Amino acid sequence: MTDPRASVDIDAPLEVVWRVMLDTEAYGEWNPFVVRIETPQPAAVGNPIVLHVRWANGKGTRSPERITAIEPPATADDGTTTALLSYVYAGLPSKLGLVRGTRHQRLTQAPGGPTSYDTVEEFSGPLVPLAGPGRVADGFRRHAEALKARAESLR
Predict the structure, then answer these.
(1) What is the CA radius of gyration of the chain?
(2) What is the end-to-end Cα distance of the chain in Å, rounded?
(3) Cα separations in angstroms, 5 against 51, 58, 96
């Protein structure tokens, strides 16, 4: 597995889920994977962002990133609403071309339906196996389930 991913359907309006995703200062209250985020407020494309990640075994790490996309909720002609948040890994292994990664978090909601949350980390580079794609996928699953619980509690 080189591209860790997770998906969950959330019984809350897309706008509520989006607000939870962008409220980076509150991540420590609900997110068991990304327990803290350092970034200028409000979030903006080009901002540096440092993710404080906690693995399932309780150990943690810091991951420097840069926001590459913030596409707020927009509704298409068919009534489907979508939003996107993306950031790129900016650590030393990336600068050396050894591990590159871009994480996309997409929201989609058809009229009257739940909000679908999909996240994927697009990895490349010769040292990707050392980046632990399996433990990243586990973190993404924990993040998705916690996002679901948080957004549904606020709807």
Answers:
(1) 15
(2) 35
(3) 17, 21, 25
pLDDT of residue 42: 86
Domain extent at residue 57? 5-154
Contacts of 99 (CB under 8 A, 6+ apart): 89, 91, 93, 123, 124, 125, 127, 128, 130, 131
pTM of the model: 0.95
Q: What is the pLDDT of residue 131?
A: 85
CA distance 128 to 88: 14
pLDDT above 80 (res 2): no
Structural domains counted in the chain? 1
Residues 6+ apart with CB under 8 A from 3: 120, 121, 122, 123, 133
